[in-house]
Structure to design on (306 residues):
């Protein structure tokens, strides 16, 4: 069943766990999230980026997610991830497909981000759609050359408080040192947990962690064994994710780990069954790898059986 982002995240706050938000862009990614959610009896968020919409179409993805949601009792939310194009965000709000949209104004000056977020919140709420916004800019701690630069990019607790109150957004993405993609750290996984604790103390809006993929060792090993060249890939460690949830993160975004899992499953199947040219067979292999990874995330985030 479809539900709303605020109700899902309020329950997560009450139960002190986080809900996984998984990027989907085709039938197999949607099937994998729903299969994992049913197997774990866990709520889940299915999200489409602007690139996913360009790839598969808003209506196609929306209709598929709604169809799957209708057939399950598991609470699901359909969400627009990293909306930057105002026109596309408005289209998503008006489409009736999305329960929530993210407006990502992180590349804009703070005041402009605040102003545009307010405008989008007003339009979205008028149609019963929730809004995730972002304050600070998601970037890896190792990307900053000085403490000053790091402070300028990572989320300021005071600014997060002002932003949450002024915009009335329903969820807030914070920058504490994670970044998107498969190459997050050269050395150890480092996140600014002190900053997260400060933000949580001040901000009552549910907090979102982007760039949270872990690059699971076993999946990376399989992908590499069958030809993927991702030796330097490194993600957020499982203990760091557990700590972030303990400190108050309630929505966790995962895309990269599903990409690696799909890649590993397809590569393994094609290598082991070179005679089998049926795409349904190699896609099923990739889909199964994704389902296993999503199930592990649900257990890690504490949303299983919730
Ligand atoms: O945060 C970004 C997501 O990983 C989506 O990536 O824009 O390539 O679909 P994408
Ligand atoms: P990863 O690249 O770590 O999976 O992050 C995905 C994300 O934040 C989508 O918004
Ligand atoms: Zn993101």
């Amino acid at each position: 069943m479809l539900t709303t982002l605020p109700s899902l995240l309020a329950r997560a706050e009450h139960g002190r766990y986080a809900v996984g938000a998984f990027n989907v862009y085709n039938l197999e990614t949607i099937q994998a999230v729903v299969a994992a959610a049913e197997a774990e009896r866990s709520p889940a968020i299915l999200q489409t980026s602007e690139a996913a919409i360009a790839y598969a179409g808003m209506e196609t993805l929306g209709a598929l997610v709604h169809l799957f949601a209708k057939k399950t009792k598991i609470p699901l939310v359909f969400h627009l991830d990293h909306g930057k194009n105002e026109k596309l965000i408005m289209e998503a709000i008006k489409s009736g497909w999305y329960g929530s949209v993210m407006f990502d104004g992180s590349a804009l000056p703070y005041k402009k981000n605040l102003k545009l977020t307010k405008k989008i919140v007003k339009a979205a709420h008028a149609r019963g759609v929730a809004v995730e916004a972002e304050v600070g800019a998601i970037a890896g701690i190792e990307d900053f050359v000085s403490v000053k630069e790091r402070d300028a990019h990572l989320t300021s607790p005071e600014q997060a408080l002002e932003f949450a109150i002024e915009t009335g957004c329903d969820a807030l993405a914070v920058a504490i040192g994670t970044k998107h993609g498969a190459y997050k750290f050269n050395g150890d996984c480092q996140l600014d947990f002190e900053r997260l604790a400060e933000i949580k103390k001040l901000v009552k809006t549910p907090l979102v962690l982007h760039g949270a993929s872990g690059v699971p060792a076993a999946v990376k090993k399989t992908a590499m064994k069958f030809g993927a060249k991702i030796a330097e890939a490194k993600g957020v460690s499982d203990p760091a994710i557990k700590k972030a949830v303990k400190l108050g993160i309630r929505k966790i975004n995962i895309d990269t780990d599903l990409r690696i899992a799909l890649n590993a499953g397809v590569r393994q199947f094609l290598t082991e069954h070179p005679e089998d040219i049926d795409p349904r067979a190699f896609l099923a292999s990739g889909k199964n790898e994704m389902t296993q990874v999503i199930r592990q995330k649900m257990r890690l985030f504490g949303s299983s059986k919730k």
In short: Residues 279-301 form the longest helix (23 residues). The domain at 5-301 is CATH 3.20.20.70 (TIM Barrel). The mean pLDDT is 97. Strands lie at 19-23, 44-48, 76-83, 100-103, 130-135, 171-174, 207-209, 249-254.
